[in-house]
Specification:
Layout lengths: L3 E2 L9 H20 L8 H8 L3 H4 L1 H13 L3 H8 L1 H20 L4 H15 L2 H12 L5 H29 L4 H4 L1 H16 L6 E2 L5 H20 L9 H23 L13 H31 L4 H9 L2 H15 L4 H19 L8 H11 L2 H15 L6 H43 L3 H10 L1 H38 L17
Antiparallel strand pairs: 1-2
Length: about 500
């Protein structure tokens, strides 16, 4: 049995109140999305500040993404249990608190713990901000609500690398987290004052606790295995073998439980729709490729090309210009035509640009780095917006909320997994090419001897090693971009496995 508390319909907000509340909700969504990318250019600074290797610094990105992904399927239950407004305000306050603790961290362990807690608090902010925006705007202004939410969702990941770079260069890396604190405090106060009368009904319903525990176990084990594998020689380590076994058994148990549970935490039954699972597979492949390359680019630019965090952020942020400009056009096209050609063109465009980037050299200029990223942004809305429409039009009306949550979970998880795989492959390939180039360039020691007559033996060795390092990293970077580009091509072809949609889905409640 469940007990439900009902509320009378609240009076609508006045003009000034409406926009004040809308600004607070949009800002809440903005900082939650911002933190998925703001650390991308900050990894070298964080790693240096905490005295850890750069590959360990990427855990700051994956830990947040995984934690955020886990809470998304829980948002519906949490909303019913505590109320939409109360949950939003609490999530904002906790997000601000854990952001402050992230900035105060003195060790990697402390930072990762706080980053996980920050992700758990931030997960509900995205769907709740959209829900509340649509709730407070009158019916005739629903497009304004959706547009405001969509704009912050598109702009935030674009500004993340730029803002992160500026803060790292001008202040210090903790400020990429501290900047959230005043925003969280102000927005939570405004949201509570303006929206508490819009609180949703409270329903005392139970949660699928076993399903949730199994979800956390297999996801955590999988991510730890991917993050730690390269440091422990993969399956030569008992720790990695144990994590792999836990991940496989946990995933199998999760599947069995969720498919037999009456009220599962993740409704896997939506995968019976071909259009839905094809859309999810497409977005997972494409987003994983995109996010992996996005994480790799600033690390390469800062660590081996001499870029500052600001310059690396600018190069990355340029990719969002065409994305934001094209989004309204794509939204219109999605409602008027078959979305599959739009998705195909968008993902193929992303793949073509990424393949083009795989022919870079060590003397590449800033313009040559930034220009492909600028044009790459054009493909993002063509890939993302129609694909959501295709997925949601493939499921039944009552399944849309569960399908949206599951799709967002898998999209976020694919980004976290791709980050681990890309950084591992990048380092492994760099070592491989370093060995190959060392053998080719100076197998008999003649080059060192020749340069040693001018610079001295030790400086000659250092110079040769520097040259080999830079070329091996460049070759490794190009190979990762090449693989990412091919993954985009595969994802673009996969979308044609979906049947032509018979209706246009209302994606206004999709996050």
């Amino acid at each position: 049995m469940s007990a439900t508390t009902t509320h009378a319909a609240p009076a609508p907000l006045s003009g000034a109140q409406l926009w004040l509340a809308a600004g607070a909700l949009a800002a809440g969504n903005f900082i939650a999305v911002l933190d998925t990318t703001i650390a991308n250019v900050s990894v070298p600074n964080i790693a240096g500040g905490l005295g850890v290797a750069a590959n360990q610094g990427t855990w700051v990105i994956t830990s947040y993404a995984v934690a955020e992904a886990i809470t998304v399927p829980l948002t519906g239950w949490l909303t019913a249990r505590f109320g939409t407004v109360r949950l939003f305000v609490t999530s904002m306050l906790l997000f601000g608190l854990f952001s402050m603790l992230c900035g105060m961290s003195t060790s990697l362990e402390m930072l990762l713990t706080c980053r996980v807690l920050q992700g758990l608090a931030g997960g509900p902010l995205m769907p709740l901000s959209q829900t509340l925006l649509q709730q407070i705007f009158p019916k005739e202004k629903q497009s304004t609500a959706i547009g405001l939410w969509s704009m912050t969702t598109l702009v935030a990941p674009v500004l993340g690398p730029l803002l992160g770079g500026v803060l790292c260069d001008q202040v210090s890396w903790p400020w990429i987290f501290h900047i959230n604190v005043p925003i969280a405090l102000i927005c939570s106060y405004i949201a509570w004052q303006m929206l508490k009368r819009h609180e949703s009904a409270i329903q005392r319903s139970r949660i699928d606790s076993i399903g949730l525990v199994l979800l956390v176990i297999w996801v955590a084990a999988l991510q730890l295995m991917l993050d730690e594998g390269k440091n422990h020689d993969w399956f030569a380590s008992n720790e990695i073998v144990t994590l792999a076994i836990v991940a496989v058994i946990g995933f199998a148990a999760f599947l069995i439980w969720e498919l037999t549970e009456r009220n599962p935490v993740v409704n896997l039954r939506v995968f019976r729709h071909r259009g839905y699972w094809v859309s999810v597979l497409t977005i997972s492949l494409a987003f994983g490729s995109f996010f992996g390359a996005t994480v790799l680019t600033p690390q390469w630019l800062q660590s081996y090309m001499g870029y500052t965090a600001t310059d690396a952020g600018i190069a990355q942020a340029i990719s969002g210009i065409l994305s934001v400009l094209a989004a309204p056009l794509v939204a219109q096209l999605t409602t008027r035509m078959d979305p599959r050609p739009l998705v195909f063109m968008g993902v193929m465009w992303l793949g073509a640009v990424t393949l083009f980037r795989s022919f870079a050299t060590t003397d590449i200029s800033f313009v040559q780095v930034a220009l492909p990223l600028f044009f790459q942004g054009l493909g993002m809305p063509f890939f993302f917006v129609p694909l959501i429409g295709l997925a949601m039009s493939s499921v039944e009306e009552h399944e849309m909320a569960a399908a949206a949550g599951l799709m967002n979970f898998l999209r976020t998880m694919s980004g976290a997994i791709a980050t681990s795989l890309v950084t591992t492959a990048w380092e492994d390939k760099a070592k491989y090419y370093h060995d190959v180039l060392t053998g080719l360039s100076d197998a008999g020691g003649e080059a060192v001897h020749s340069m040693g007559t001018v610079f001295g033996t030790e400086p000659a060795r250092n110079l040769l090693n520097y040259l080999v390092d830079s070329q091996s990293i460049m070759l490794s970077t190009n190979e990762v971009f090449w693989i990412s580009g091919l993954s985009f091509v595969v994802a673009a072809c996969v979308v044609w496995l979906a049947p032509r949609p018979t209706r246009v889905a209302d994606t206004s409640n999709v996050h």
